Each structure stands twice: as C-alpha cells, then as structure tokens.
Prior knowledge:
The structure is a single chain. By secondary structure, this protein is of the alpha+beta class. The chain has one domain (about 10-125): Muramoyl-pentapeptide Carboxypeptidase, domain 2. It is about 30% helix and about 20% strand. It contains 4 helices and 7 strands; from the N terminus they run ββααβαβαβββ. It has helices at about 10-15, 25-40, 55-60, 85-95; strands at about 5, 10, 45-50, 75-80, 100-105, 110-115, 120-125. A 5-stranded mixed sheet has the order 3-4-6-5-7, with helices on one face. Helix 2 (about 25-40) packs across helix 4. The mean pLDDT is about 90. The protein binds zinc ion. Zinc ion (ZN) binds near residues 16, 20, 22 and 52.
Amino acid sequence: MADMITPNFSVNEMACLCGCGIAETDPEFMLMLQELKDQMQGPLRVCIGRRSDYHNDGVSAAKNKKNAVYNLGQASNILISGERTMLLFEKARKVGFSGIGLSQKGNHSSRFLHLDTLPRKALFRY
Length: 126
Ligand SMILES: [Zn+2]
C-alpha cells in the first residue's frame, strides 16, 4: 500500500517531481482536494503537487518566483480536458479554491486545471 495523505491522494502523487522526496502539503488544501475528488465521480490525476524551493526555482515560469505556490503545498495541477473540465471548474469554486488557472489549449493529454488556496481570488489562464 502506498502512503496516503487522504483516501485518494498518495504521498507519491503529491511529491516534488525532481526526486528530492519533499511531499509535505497543507492539510486544509488536501481536505479540499479530497472533497473535490469525492464530488467528481471519477479519477483526478495530479500532474503537479508539491515542489521544493530548489525545483520550483528551476522550472517556474512565474516572473517573481517568490509568488510561486507549489512550494507552499497549497496548489496542484489536475490533468483534465473536455466536458469534465467545466464540471471540475464549477465544483472547485463551490469547494472554495481561491485560485483557478486554466490550461485548455493544445494536446488534450496535457490540458489541466490549476487549483490553489492562496489568500486572494484569482482566475487566470496559461
Ligand atoms: Zn524536489
């Protein structure tokens, strides 16, 4: 059995992709992600969970890397495209995520929705 953070999200799934082993996430964020998963009826595939500061500095496209969110454990990108994207968007708002980012161009397999719980309201696209 994989180590689980919530019933449906494992430590491995949320871990930094550089292999450093950092996987700590904000408990409130993870509860909300689980709530969203419960409401979505079907898989939610995380493509970015936690990032270490080091990894984030290397890959973040944000101009001000201090504003990055993945290294706070309060953000995740969910691979999703097609009709389920709208459903996920609506439910994410109701669950209370404060930041939602849309990437819905190009190859369906790489489209995603960004979710975070930073203390502000933001809707943006990539
Ligand atoms: Zn890392």
